[in-house]
């Protein structure tokens, strides 16, 4: 008998657009011989499933069920593809834990911590072979904090919402005159902002997931952007960025990154597929951590999909592994 899977998408942030695109791809790639898929859209004021007749059926939040053809549907598990809040910050994970429904992504604590870039860096910074850029984490947009940034950090630096994703609200600052505008932009997206000194090097992104007790580290993708940095436009506009999978690294670099990536996955107690972004510093080759995404994009051209294909695996096989793992 096929298991019933809720494919959860939508969300409360600007990343909902990306989430819906990811869900549209996941929906077509999941093995329908194994699973019945029900796409659940989560919006702030409405959680619903669109049944085969085109009618929106509200989700009963008392037990996370839906009605279709007068039949009550409950779920064996959840495929979470909701980027941002509430799918990536731990809120949904906590709800599903209370409902005793397994899901494909990290638990509430890991999700909440990894959504906070500053807290994540504090946890992983003692991993051997991994480096973090000097940074400041701000909780208020005040003249005093602006002055702290100018006095304590060396230009250039990146200013970004601490809990954001898809590079929304992010700026690269080259002069002191640009600092306040960048802080205003970031604080418009979040009440915490992270400012990091610039690391000169090549940017990569690497996917990881666990099968049984083994962490599978996928081939890294090298990000070569025509923009100043890998911002929202660079991520989601065709032709702006060149993505090379596998990325151009020596065998020594590949092995070193693989060891570090696995340590990050285990240290943060990750679950399901995650993606770590990092720099290889120019001249030194040091690995500098950028951030980790615990609900990475799953569009047809997304980095994870490219990396899965690079090891000779189909996306359908990959999704089956992810789904089956949540019941172990």
Structure description:
The protein has about 325 residues and is of the alpha+beta class. It folds into 3 domains: about 100 residues, Rossmann fold (3-Layer(aba) Sandwich), CATH 3.40.50; about 150 residues, 2-Layer Sandwich (D-amino Acid Aminotransferase, Chain A, domain 1); about 60 residues, ATP-grasp fold, A domain (Dna Ligase, domain 1, 2-Layer Sandwich). It is built from 10 helices and 18 strands. Strands 8, 13, 14, 15, 16, 17 and 18 form a 7-stranded mixed beta sheet that branches. It has a 5-stranded mixed beta sheet with strand order 4-3-2-1-7, with helices on one face. Strand 2 and strand 3 form a beta hairpin. It is globular, with a radius of gyration of 20 Å. About 0% of the residues have low confidence. Its EC number is 6.3.2.4. Belongs to the D-alanine--D-alanine ligase family. It holds the Pfam family Dala_Dala_lig_N.
């Amino acid at each position: 008998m096929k298991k019933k899977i809720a494919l959860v998408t939508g969300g409360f942030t600007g990343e909902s657009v990306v989430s819906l695109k990811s869900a549209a791809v996941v929906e077509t790639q999941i093995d329908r011989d194994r699973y019945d898929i029900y796409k659940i859209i989560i919006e702030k004021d409405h959680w619903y499933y669109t049944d085969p007749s085109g009618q929106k059926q509200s989700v009963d939040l008392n037990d996370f069920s839906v009605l279709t053809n007068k039949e009550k549907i409950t779920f064996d598990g959840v495929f979470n593809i909701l980027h941002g809040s509430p799918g990536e910050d731990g809120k949904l994970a906590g709800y599903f834990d209370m409902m005793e429904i397994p899901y494909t992504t990290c638990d509430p604590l890991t999700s909440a911590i990894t959504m906070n870039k500053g807290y994540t860096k504090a946890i992983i910074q003692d991993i051997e072979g991994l480096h973090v850029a000097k940074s400041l984490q701000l909780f208020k947009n005040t003249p005093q904090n602006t002055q702290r940034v100018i006095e304590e950090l060396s230009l250039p630096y990146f200013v970004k919402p601490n809990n954001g994703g898809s590079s929304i609200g992010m700026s690269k600052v080259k002069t002191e005159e640009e600092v306040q505008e960048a802080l205003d932009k970031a604080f418009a997206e979040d009440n915490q902002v992270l400012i990091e000194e610039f690391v000169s090097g090549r940017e990569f992104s690497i996917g990881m997931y666990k099968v049984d007790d083994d962490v599978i580290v996928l081939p890294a993708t090298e990000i070569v952007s025509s923009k100043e940095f890998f911002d929202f436009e660079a991520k989601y506009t065709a032709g702006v960025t060149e993505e090379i999978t596998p990325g151009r690294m020596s065998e020594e670099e590949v092995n070193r990154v693989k060891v570090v990536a696995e340590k990050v996955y285990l240290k943060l107690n990750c679950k399901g597929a995650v993606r770590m972004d990092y720099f290889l510093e120019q001249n030194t080759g040091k690995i500098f951590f950028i951030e980790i995404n615990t609900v990475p994009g799953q569009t047809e051209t997304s980095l994870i999909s490219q990396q899965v294909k690079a090891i000779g695996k189909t996306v359908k096989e990959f999704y089956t592994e992810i789904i089956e793992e949540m019941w172990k």
